């Protein structure tokens, strides 16, 4: 299946969910400050407001502060987007009525740059400390264990022939002096817009190491050679991993785009879903729910199960591509907004062509996720445990009805697992964690290269977005880290 025909997973019409405390974010990946404030959500939200302004009255700056997202657990998520930079810093006032909450006002010392300001931190270690990047990422360590060294010449000789032919979906990147260069290999490389935008965004924030690598834009991981084979596996970078492949995994294009586009072009993202998780647990419909395309046969089985057990399951196929002959038998369900998924107490997560990229959104909701056993995984799965963060179901769905009945009969335990999964996903999928993960993969890759990266024939510069509408004056002073 061509990447341009991929199952969009309906996650692009999805949301996200949150963590406890009121988080104030300053231009995703630039700075992150966290404010904890216990509030009465139902009665007090009308009186709850956040005011963000420049520390200096001489600096007038455009800042968009949308309505706080009520997580319905006594906490709110505060987001804001800067359209100009400030030199002196920002004052964040968190007010309940006319009273400041907790340690409000909070002071973020400048300079603080807006998203498209190209002022990279010259000390990558300091940048990682500012973002509180984890010191260890188990999935990254596992992925690179197969590659103690990376032979660029072998990559150049083999990758175009093995993976870059007509139906290929590979992009060859070189990063030199914090500039991004690329050449597409194959017919299906439209999704390079996602890899381009995250690499450019990172380069605006921190100096990237010089490196040369290949990204797979297709659904399926590519490298299936084993470590003890000759020749050995190649370190292809992909968005999805599998138990029988050796690809190095990055956050999916969907998670990446959600992180970059929050509060701009995308309304249903990993942050906004946190304030749209449906009714309280006790008021949710006690059924397992699923909507999606026909990208895997188990999804058809799920719909058949729902027809036979409507008291336990509500499942429907919204679009037929792979099994068009089944539409007459199973019917076609109407599209439903992703926020409405969370009217149901249980969410069924079944693979699409590979891992279902809606999974992080489901985890961030306020429902119990019933996750199909799968050979595919995303970058954060290693941190999740069955029966702690989700309820596992067999790949052939043979025990799905049994697990739904268990959840109904053990409501408090089901609620506890749902909440534990939600809180863990909130932590793992924060915007700064996505930036940290990308940088750490690039850093590990660069450290293992056995020769210097170069610009190759056919490569072109990927330009930074034009920032002519806002002043961007880089300051020598580095922002200091503050724990609020």
TrEMBL record:
Residues 1-10 have a biased composition (Basic and acidic residues). GO terms for cellular component: endomembrane system. Gene3D superfamilies: Immunoglobulins. GO terms for molecular function: glucosyltransferase activity. Transmembrane segments: none annotated. Pfam families: Glyco_transf_90. It catalyses: L-seryl-[EGF-like domain protein] + UDP-alpha-D-xylose = 3-O-(beta-D-xylosyl)-L-seryl-[EGF-like domain protein] + UDP + H(+); L-seryl-[EGF-like domain protein] + UDP-alpha-D-glucose = 3-O-(beta-D-glucosyl)-L-seryl-[EGF-like domain protein] + UDP + H(+). Pathway: Protein modification. Signal peptide: none annotated. Residues 207-452 form the Glycosyl transferase CAP10 domain. Belongs to the KDELC family. Protein glucosyltransferase that catalyzes the transfer of glucose from UDP-glucose to a serine residue within the consensus sequence peptide C-X-N-T-X-G-S-F-X-C. Can also catalyze the transfer of xylose from UDP-xylose but less efficiently. Specifically targets extracellular EGF repeats of proteins such as NOTCH1, NOTCH3, FBN1, FBN2 and LTBP1. May regulate the transport of NOTCH1 and NOTCH3 to the plasma membrane and thereby the Notch signaling pathway. PANTHER family: KDEL LYS-ASP-GLU-LEU CONTAINING - RELATED (PTHR12203), PROTEIN O-GLUCOSYLTRANSFERASE 3 (PTHR12203:SF18). This is KDEL motif-containing protein 2. It comes from Myotis brandtii (Brandt's bat).
């Amino acid at each position: 299946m061509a990447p341009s025909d991929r199952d969009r997973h309906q996650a692009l019409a999805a949301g996200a969910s949150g963590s406890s405390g009121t988080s104030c974010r300053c231009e995703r990946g630039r700075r992150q400050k966290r404010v904890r404030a216990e509030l009465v959500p139902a009665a007090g939200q009308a009186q709850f407001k956040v005011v963000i302004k420049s520390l200096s009255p001489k600096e007038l700056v455009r800042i968009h502060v949308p309505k706080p997202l009520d997580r319905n657990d006594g906490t709110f998520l505060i987001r804001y987007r800067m359209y100009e930079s400030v030199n002196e810093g920002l004052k964040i006032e968190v007010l309940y009525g006319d009273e400041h909450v907790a340690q409000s006002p909070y002071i973020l010392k400048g300079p603080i740059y807006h998203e498209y300001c190209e002022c990279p931190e010259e000390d990558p270690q300091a940048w990682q400390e500012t973002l509180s990047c984890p010191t260890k990422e188990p999935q990254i360590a596992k992925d690179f264990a197969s590659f103690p060294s990376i032979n660029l010449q072998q990559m150049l000789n083999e990758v175009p022939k093995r993976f870059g032919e007509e139906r290929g979906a590979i992009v060859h990147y070189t990063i030199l002096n914090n500039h991004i260069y690329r050449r597409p290999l194959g017919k299906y490389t439209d999704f390079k817009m996602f890899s381009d935008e995250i690499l450019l965004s990172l380069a605006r924030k921190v100096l990237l190491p010089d490196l040369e690598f290949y990204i797979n834009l297709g659904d399926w991981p590519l490298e299936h050679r084993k470590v003890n084979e000759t020749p050995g596996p190649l370190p292809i970078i992909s968005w999805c991993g599998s138990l029988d492949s050796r690809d190095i995994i990055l956050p999916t294009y969907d998670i990446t785009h959600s992180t970059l586009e929050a509060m701009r072009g995308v309304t249903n993202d990993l942050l906004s879903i946190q304030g749209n998780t449906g009714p309280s647990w006790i008021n949710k419909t006690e059924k397992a729910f699923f909507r999606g395309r026909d990208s895997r046969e188990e999804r058809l089985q799920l719909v058949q199960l729902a027809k036979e057990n409507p008291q336990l399951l509500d499942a429907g196929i919204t679009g037929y591509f792979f099994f068009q002959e089944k539409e007459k038998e199973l019917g076609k369900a109407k599209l439903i907004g992703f926020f409405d998924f969370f009217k149901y107490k249980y969410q069924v997560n079944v693979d699409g062509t590979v891992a279902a990229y809606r999974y992080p959104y489901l985890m961030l909701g306020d429902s119990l996720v019933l996750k199909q056993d799968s050979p595919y995984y995303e970058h954060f799965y290693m941190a999740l445990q069955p029966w702690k963060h989700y309820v596992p179901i067999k790949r052939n769905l043979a025990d799905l009805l049994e697990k739904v009945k268990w959840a109904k009969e053990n409501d408090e335990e089901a609620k506890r697992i749902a909440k534990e999964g939600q809180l863990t996903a909130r932590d793992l999928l924060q915007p700064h964690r996505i930036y940290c993960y990308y940088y750490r993969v690039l850093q590990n890759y660069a450290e293992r290269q056995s020769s210097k990266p170069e610009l190759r024939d056919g490569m072109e510069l990927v330009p930074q977005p034009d920032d002519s509408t806002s002043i961007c004056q880089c300051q020598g002073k580095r922002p200091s880290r503050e724990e609020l």
